[in-house]
């Protein structure tokens, strides 16, 4: 119905449908997403005449010629160095000590370490792989069914794009012209709310099925164990401390904080003796591969956005959506559904560069705060990462463990439901996203 309304409103022709069909076919053929977007963007430009092809190269360059984007490879590299130096295991030790009092403590520790890793790497797939290698076998040994252990890690890793500093917020800030530092501050409470919803889900499931014992720890034992963990691994928290203090105090931009975090993590690795010069080629190649997926997508987003704007698609979408219903709560719910479905099938970056310019005018039309819109969009996309049957994180942990994707997806349903509740609160209550911001942004 919405598609028919859009077609009638904008009078779309083959200059739109042709590139869309081309994009779907290329993705179905497993062509890299950046290449599919690029081919579709060029096809749309050719058919619509929106931009002379002689200017496409310049447009691509301007798409990535932003200082803020330098933070993306820096955060990715920081996450790689963190794993190589073994500092990520220190996070797990501290998280385990913090949750030892609770029944289901190691499951909760797994979720916490996902959040800690998210606060450094800003990537969900990297977090799922890194944390999964450390925890899934131990979760199974603690009594959890393997499919549930995989689903727990997949859900916890969603915080990679939800807890600042997040690569997703850097990209959406770039696409919509909003400061990444402002989005980081706004995302603190929503990100922690999602993390708590995953923790609550695990505690409830553990109490229902009694998978993991524990919790019979005296106050003295708890403090002793926590003290030992902090004494052994306190230095690991220097890195997230630098990032958070630097960005939120205003002393550093996200790019400067990322650069400082990389240098400090490398120095710590050499001091601890866990990092060698021979590790650098593989680390740099690994980070470059991830970065090489993200930046071409961003580069092709500008000509694609220009073509869509000239065709009137964003304005047409607003007119089509409001013709279906003029009620803001209905339109917000419609956006949430679209975003979760998109997050279910495609990675964050292409979703942001394609959908943000289309949905933002609708959010403006119903009076939604632009900061709240960004937080809602990234959160809903994050929920899509574990939404059965196509969530990206489900495939990451399935590939890591060899466990059936359908079994993991079934176990992920409770996490999806709890995260969806939090997402709806974020979508309908602006205060959750803006409470920490100066009045000028509210």
UniProtKB/TrEMBL annotation:
> Where is this protein found?
Cell inner membrane
Membrane topology category = Multi-pass membrane protein
Q: Which residues form the TRAP C4-dicarboxylate transport system permease DctM subunit domain?
A: 20-431
Question: A Pfam family matched by this chain, by name?
Answer: DctM
Mind naming one GO cellular-component term on file for this protein?
plasma membrane
| The keyword Cell membrane belongs to this UniProt entry's keyword annotation | yes
The protein's job, in short, is:
Part of the tripartite ATP-independent periplasmic (TRAP) transport system.
Family in the record: Belongs to the TRAP transporter large permease family.
Q: How does it assemble?
A: The complex comprises the extracytoplasmic solute receptor protein and the two transmembrane proteins.
Official protein name in the record: TRAP transporter large permease protein
Give the organism, scientific name: Marinovum algicola
């Amino acid at each position: 119905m919405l598609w028919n309304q859009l077609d009638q409103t904008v009078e779309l022709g083959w200059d739109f449908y042709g590139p869309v069909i081309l994009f779907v076919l290329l993705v179905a053929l497993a062509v890299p997403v950046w290449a599919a977007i690029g081919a579709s963007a060029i096809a749309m430009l050719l058919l619509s005449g929106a931009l002379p092809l002689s200017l496409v190269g310049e447009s691509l360059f301007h798409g990535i010629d932003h200082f803020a984007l330098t933070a993306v490879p820096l955060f990715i590299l920081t996450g790689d160095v963190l794993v190589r130096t073994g500092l990520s295991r220190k996070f797990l030790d501290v998280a385990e000590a913090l949750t030892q009092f609770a029944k289901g403590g190691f499951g909760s520790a797994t979720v916490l370490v996902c959040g800690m890793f998210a606060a450094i790497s800003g990537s969900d797939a990297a977090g799922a792989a890194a944390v999964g290698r450390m925890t899934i076998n131990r979760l199974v040994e603690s009594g959890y069914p393997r499919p549930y252990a995989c689903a727990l890690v997949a859900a916890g890793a969603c915080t990679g794009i939800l807890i600042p500093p997040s690569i997703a917020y850097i990209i959406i800030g770039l696409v919509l012209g909003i400061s990444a530092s402002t989005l980081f501050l706004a995302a603190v409470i929503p990100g922690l709310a999602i993390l708590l919803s995953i923790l609550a889900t695990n505690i409830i499931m553990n109490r229902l099925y009694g998978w993991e014992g524990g919790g019979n720890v005296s106050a003295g034992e708890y403090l002793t164990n926590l003290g030992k963990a902090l004494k052994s691994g306190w230095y690991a928290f220097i890195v997230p401390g630098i990032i958070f203090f630097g960005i939120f105090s205003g002393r550093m931009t996200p790019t400067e904080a990322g650069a400082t975090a990389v240098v400090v993590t490398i120095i710590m690795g050499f001091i601890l003796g866990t990092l060698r010069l021979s590790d650098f080629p593989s680390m740099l190649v690994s980070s470059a591969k991830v970065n090489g997926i993200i930046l071409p997508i961003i580069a092709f987003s500008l000509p694609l956005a220009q073509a869509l704007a000239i065709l009137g698609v964003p304005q047409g979408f607003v007119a089509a959506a409001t013709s279906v219903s003029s009620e803001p709560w209905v339109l917000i719910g419609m956006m949430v559904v679209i975003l979760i479905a998109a997050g279910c099938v495609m990675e964050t970056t292409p979703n942001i560069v394609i959908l943000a310019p289309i949905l933002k005018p609708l959010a403006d039309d119903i009076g939604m705060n632009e900061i709240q819109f960004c937080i809602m969009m990234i959160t809903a996309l994050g929920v899509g990462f574990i939404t059965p049957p196509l969530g990206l994180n489900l495939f990451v942990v399935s590939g890591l463990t060899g466990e059936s994707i359908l079994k993991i997806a079934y176990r992920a349903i409770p996490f999806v439901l709890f995260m969806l509740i939090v997402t709806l609160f974020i979508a309908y209550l602006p205060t959750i996203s803006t409470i920490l911001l100066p009045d000028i942004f509210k």
